[in-house]
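Page 47, continued from p. 46.
Same chain as before, 325 aa.
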Amino acid sequence: MNINHDNEKTQFKKLFKQQGLDQFNNRFKVLEIFLKTDEHITIKQLTEQLNNEGNSFDENFVASTMQLLCKYGFATKVEFNNNNVAKFEHRHLGLHHDHMICTKCGKIIEFRDEKLENNQSKMAQAYGFHMLQHKMEIYGICAECLKQRNFILSLDQIKQGEKVIVLSFEGGHNISERLASMGIKKGSTIEILSSQFGGQIVAAVDESRFVIGRGMATKVMVQSIDELETSTLNNIKKASGLKKNDLSHVKEGQECIISRVSGEPKLRRRLLEMGINRGTKIYVEKYAPLRDPIEIIVKGSHISLRVEEAGHISVEDVKDTQNHD
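Result:
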């Protein structure tokens, strides 16, 4: 924002002298350099800028001064979720703004939208809520990073909050089977819920959460859904053979009718021997905590199936049921 800061400097002199604060001249130098910065700045960065202009301040003094600037309304301390490092920005009275934060490079974009501000006030009034203050933080990827980004990445490189589609697996058939048991198939849509705890990633496929180690995640090649056109996305899902009408997508407490049993001859024969054949009604009783195996009821018998096996059972007439006899 291109703003004349003379008013802030005048008020600073008045307030700080009234309060009898120490080291006025040095603190005023901190204010002057801070007001010259257009970006959100850390204590370390501000200290470096001050000392590059011939001063000799340590970070503790700069931090205490910025604390005073926040206290008297000249600055605002902000901590965005992408790095948890405290930064400071100018606080211009009557000029509220919000932020867009790039999760890749950390760039912060300030924006103000009058319609958005008015809608927030109207929403608060509609609920009888007295709004004292608010802030909006939009996390995503800036235009510059999108241009530089590789289109195909491994799952361990995906940031929290992103949604991706699975393109392929590396590591052979065993890896594919292990991932399939977690509900991860080619064409699956995955949302990253958390990637900050040790070597594990918490994610979701459809309505099921799962935990995957980073080593395994490197074997899953994905692409951001935002980077795919709708036609391309549909083609990937079609090519992968992913179906929303197979048993692995039926929820707990739902009934369905088997329309087709596919797969390799050995698997198909085993399923048929369990009474899983065309026209038979299936009730999905429950999923295991990590969604594998599935517990179903077929003709009064309780049967456990792996998710991969359930993916070979096409179903129809899926419906919710409160009770199952």
